[in-house]
UniProtKB/TrEMBL annotation:
PANTHER family: PROTEIN NATD1. Pfam families: Acetyltransf_CG. It comes from the Eukaryota. Transmembrane segments: none annotated. This is Protein NATD1.
């Protein structure tokens, strides 16, 4: 097999890979996340989001928030790409966001259903005293 000189994807070849090779490659890609070190949550205060880079690729899981007052944030939305769901990635984002709220002594509206679920399942007093109902 020779690599296509026109391809922008280095793994792509001029010939079709056997189906078993494709399935094995997909399975390997799915398992990379599990084999890596613990997930690292990044906080971009300027863009008002927490994110996790998935497998070093352009795929990211994100949690978005907005300031709705000087000391009040709205935790609005959590999104994990479908291929990575069910691996507790959103849980890491939710924890980072709630820890941020506590550390900055903010109040939080929990618009995102997942954050509501996270706080309900992790009813730490230091979280609960910062949640607006």
């Amino acid at each position: 097999m020779r690599l296509s000189s026109q391809s922008t994807q280095p793994w792509r070849t001029d010939t079709q890979l056997p189906q078993t090779a494709v399935v094995m490659a997909q399975a390997a890609q799915m398992n990379v996340l599990e084999l890596n070190a613990p997930l690292r949550v990044e906080h971009d205060k300027k863009r008002r989001q927490f994110s996790i880079r998935l497998n070093g690729s352009h795929d990211r899981a994100v949690l978005l928030y907005e300031y709705v007052g000087k000391k009040t944030v709205d935790l609005q939305h959590t999104e994990v790409p479908e291929a990575y769901r069910g691996r507790e990635i959103a849980k890491h984002l939710a924890k980072a966001a709630m820890d941020f709220v506590v550390e900055e002594d903010l109040k939080a509206h929990l618009t995102c259903w997942y954050i509501q679920k996270y706080v309900k399942e992790n009813p730490h007093p230091h979280y609960l005293e910062h949640v607006l109902h």
